[in-house]
Amino acid sequence: MRIAIVGAGLAGLACAHELERLGLAPDVFEKGPCVGNRSRVVELMTQFMHVNPRQDIWGYVRDELMLPLEAAFALRRCVVHSASHEAEMTGKLGYVTIRGDDDGSLERQLARHVEARVRFGQTPDVRELRREYDWVVVATGDQRWTTELSQWKRDLGWTARGALVTGNFAPGEAHFFFDTRYAGTGHALLAPLDEHTAIAGIGLPDASPAEAEAYWERFRASESFRWDVEKEPFEVCRNSCGEVWPVVVGNVLLTGVAGGFLEPLGMNGQCPSLTSGVMAARQIALRDPWLERFARRWRVYYRRLARLRRSVNAWTDEDMDRLTLGVKYGGWLVTHSPWNLLEPSGMLADVLRLADELPGSLHPLHHELNLFDNMGGLKTDGPRFK
What we know:
Layout: E1 3-6, H1 10-21, E2 27-30, E3 41-46, H2 57-64, E4 73-82, E5 86-99, H3 106-112, E6 118-120, H4 126-132, E7 135-138, H5 144-149, E8 151-166, E9 173-178, H6 180-183, E10 187-192, E11 197-205, H7 209-223, E12 229-245, E13 248-249, E14 252-254, H8 270-286, H9 290-312, H10 317-336, H11 342-356, H12 366-374
Parallel strand pairs: 1-2, 1-7, 2-6, 4-9, 7-14
Antiparallel strand pairs: 3-5, 4-5, 8-11, 8-12, 9-10, 10-11, 13-14
Helix pairs in contact: 1-3, 1-8, 8-9, 9-11
């Protein structure tokens, strides 16, 4: 059986590793000159964002996806800052990972466990590959082939800007900043790679590079006392997320960002990219629709987070302060709940939006929802009950 994988990022290399584990040998194509051909950055795999918070997220990566990966370190403390408040969560919060140009990055770890020779500097035409190969896995990290082969509905763009900084940091601790002055309705982040190096950056929904640069300057002006020197700026990075369907088109399987496996709340795609790559390999090798089953479950999860993101996009600093107070007084519930609380939050956002369109006296949740808002609950973009 001849199998081609286009893209040697997380999804592509996870797919190659699983195919080899199941006895198949793929051909891997990568447009860049090497694996991890991007600026070195820190990313977080948070436990509360995992579809099943009762399961250790790294246990899932190693035991269910069978991927021999190591996190940089466990995330044990998260400090949340807003315009007027500060709060923290401690405990088993997730894991810190390294991406890009670093020997410890997830991409390079995977590459060391994949036997297939990666053909660098190549951008093959998927239409031609699908005639030459029995199966083609698209793991390109963009939607170029998605728009041509399948249906893609764009929901959100995300622009990131930041730098590698030096100073004195605590590994396993991350700082999130929710402040419209320098993060809009996105967020800023300070996360260490080690005791002396960290990533400082901002992520903004649907912002231009010029807007991102302006927000970054405000963030630096306000928070740069937290680090000593900026060493390596990373270029403005822009991604888009949306729904893709179907993810299997004939003998082509769409994985990672190309398959829509990028969550819209914080634009984190590590775990879903790894999962989609492994599921694509199992669908090919075991002749069972593993990827399609995962994609159906993912669409439900994605849509609920997308609803929550649409509400967050209308937040003010007052709402960001409420979020911080929610972390301060309810963070334990988020970190210890056996359920993922973000999915019902997305449904709640829809209920609140619908309720805002009805006269208060006609809605059965009139009193309860106003009470929830008065206690610091989520505020939506419409008028409140009168």
